[in-house]
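> tool_call: predict_assembly(chains=two)
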Amino acid sequence: MKIKMLLFLAILTLGMVSCKNQASQEKSEVANEKPDWVIVIHGGAGNITPERIPPEKEAEYKVKLAEALDAGAAILDNGGSSLDAVEVAINIMEDCPLFNAGKGAVFSADGINELDASIMDGRTMNAGAVAGVTTIRHPISAARKVMEESAHVMLVKDGAEQFALGQGIEIVDPSWFYTEKRWQSLQKAKQREAEKKADLTKKSGTVGCVALDKHGNLAAGTSTGGMTNKKYGRIGDSPIIGAGTYANNNSCAVSATGHGEYFIRNVVAYDISARMLYANMTLNEASNEVINHVLKEQNGSGGIIAIDNKGNIAMPFNTAGMFRGYMKPGTEAEVFIFKDK
Amino acid sequence: MKIKMLLFLAILTLGMVSCKNQASQEKSEVANEKPDWVIVIHGGAGNITPERIPPEKEAEYKVKLAEALDAGAAILDNGGSSLDAVEVAINIMEDCPLFNAGKGAVFSADGINELDASIMDGRTMNAGAVAGVTTIRHPISAARKVMEESAHVMLVKDGAEQFALGQGIEIVDPSWFYTEKRWQSLQKAKQREAEKKADLTKKSGTVGCVALDKHGNLAAGTSTGGMTNKKYGRIGDSPIIGAGTYANNNSCAVSATGHGEYFIRNVVAYDISARMLYANMTLNEASNEVINHVLKEQNGSGGIIAIDNKGNIAMPFNTAGMFRGYMKPGTEAEVFIFKDK
């Protein structure tokens, strides 16, 4: 009788454990269910603290980030492509003086705005980039034309502009990109340089977007004005496939922002994909390892946004803040600026 | 007694097996002994067949490849750095009209020679690159100055030239790069384009060098004129760190040659390193996988040269031929052009 009782208890316990496991498994499956579509954006990483961004400015940034997310999300929700969503979201940030891309880009040492951008299609693995352009209103759209309408990946300077013009890309007078704030930043940087003081120029500030569409296709894009007071035709990581931008349907889509030279040397965007494919890391593990260990140990400041092919997202940065946000079906845009909000 | 006999035989057999193992291990260790230094070069991959390269031309190429190897080897044998060896070997090929780099570079659609180069130091992981330069005799030397004397990795066009001039890099008249053979190639390419015939332009032809020095440091460099009849400021993989050039003392040094757009999209040079570090592939496995599977399946033609940090070398290509060679202590330069010789 005692044995039967024990057996009964044992079966009961096993049953409960089994039920609990099933429940937690279901919960975990629900939590990890692949969303129909996902969009993530950034507007640059850097020394972005509540002390430097007053509440009214914070609100301005958040409104614009949400606007860019909403525009991309509308395309994705309608069954549009991740490439279209990436381009549209970036176009909105390129037109906004708050960000260092398109209108509002920083000035080079020559007092001009030299813009770089790149885009990659995770389905075809095709890619396009422009660098050092000064008259293209939306460099990300020019990069997309390079990808889709040329046999090349990367076009630079006036050659890239000539190509864009032939493709019907909107050309503007260089004064379109002028903002008083960025002009003053250049003057300050030049003054510090003349006084041989340390360069306090922000090495970051760039916009980017990654998206997963209903067809399971990933895309990534990045657009920037580069570094204030940059010289000698310097090109950072933003227009370099593998460094600032990478997308592959087998792994993830990544857009980076930060001190570009570190991102080039560490082939950051591709490294995240490679760690997923070859070292079986999750998107979170791979991006945290690259941003918070590899780069941090080299004092390479910045961050990335990424989506894997299951719709998981990552937005690590090793700076004080990063303008960022994401959106999934059935939710409002979630936007953040500082470490925790 | 029988048992003792069997025991004796068993011990004897075990001893023999053990000795044999030791012997084969020793042999394998001797075979894999790390050489004091190694240098490998390439002068471009492509449709290089005995039918297209008559014996006297073949001899010319082999003499020049051996000369470049000898110059780099002399530095390495004297305890010099892999960076110096890479630069000197590439300088020799840049000055030689046989190769598509420096003097003898192909012409762009505008009838000028636009040169790209990059270099990477596997010890510091620092890197430098110039792209679209038209007056720098030795673009690889300018790339090295970018790496060592600037805060940047990549400088393009006239900005890069201005920087090089300030660094005492030799500036030449653009006519220095002119060769009748390449000029005629451009005319032919333009004629075929006008007649809307298929582009037969060779997508390859570049020079590169990788070296391991006595101090265990790896370095890689690549220099090119790009593609005949290239337009719109097109930049290929050669000046892109991770695509055409990569070096890391923890894994390998790689220099690529081929249809650049494929090498950029596949982040070829870094991918070989990533497969070694994350997927535990050998240098041979990693480079064969990338060149003979990943690229071949995309019709991405070309090849790479590489050395790992143990001094193993790899020189795979998926084209008819690749100008290539290597040298180690105590041997003559070994040079090859076609598949098997």
